[in-house]
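Recall that a protein's primary structure is simply its ordered list of amino acids. Everything else, from secondary elements to tertiary packing, is in principle encoded there. The following example makes that idea concrete.
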Amino acid sequence: MASHRRPKQPSRARVTVLTTAAAAAVVLSANAANAAPSEKPNKDEVKTKVDKLYEEAEQATEKLDGAKEKQQKLQKQISALQDNVARGQEELNDLREGLGSMASAQYRTGGIDPSVALFLSSDPDDFLDKASAMDQLSAQQVESLKKVQEKQRSLAQQRAEASAKLKDLADTRAELAKKKKEVQNKLGSAQKLLNTLTAQEKAALASEEQDRATRASERVDLGDTPPASGRAAAAFAAAKTRIGSPYVYGASGPSSFDCSGLTSWAYAQAGVTIPRTSQAQANAGTRIYSQSDLQVGDLVIFYGDQHHVGLYAGNGQVLHAPRTGTVVRYESIGNMPFQFGVRI
């Protein structure tokens, strides 16, 4: 007779796990079925995000400009130091040749005595200490050795300074590369967002920006605010000739600009050198905290971190290079968070 065994019942724990998993699967399926598809951001939402990225890119651009300016200064300083070291080495070689001539003369007149042997020492301090004790040096010999000693010390100091600046230059170049990559990443992210728009939406945004640029580039009522000075008037006049020039990060003219590139270029045309970055320009003159006290040609600093600058144009207007995708134009001072003016 065949045996009939009772099937093994699943454990209570196993039943619980399977039941829970099945319930979760049902819930997930229901959620997936009922979930609304993610909505593509509309034109205005994309513009808001892109404008934010452009502002962040401008912040990074001012730091990039600062690193560039520091690199240029360091390169000039290193070049000057290296020239000084080369000339100093030539002078030291001449001094040593003079000491060698003295040694040769003494040899011809009776051999090299202990004092002359000390002339050839590589340590002038040691030589002077020993020789003065021997009282065997002439005044001319003492003076020559002192010059050698001073020149050696000067060269050692200049070489150490050049070495420190070369390290600083290497660090600055690394910072420059980092900031450049940061700017490019911000602009790349903005472009990706713009690429999500349809051709019609892109055309609408471009048309809006063109209309804004046209209105801002046309003659605006600047009132009769006087210039801060003759040079400020000259700087503002130079900037006006650049209206319509495109914003390009890191550019300082004459055909494209970023914000501080425009202001530094304009003042250079007036014969005045001001720092390259907006943060440095914020400390380049007398601060004007009341908008009513601003005069034409004053620098105007915006945002808490001082990453944007323009030129006061009068009647509540500034002339500036706004951001990527725009051109040099007039704009109401109230469109950005005003911090203070700077009178050069």
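The radius of gyration is 37 Å. The CA atoms of residues 41 and 204 lie 15 Å apart.
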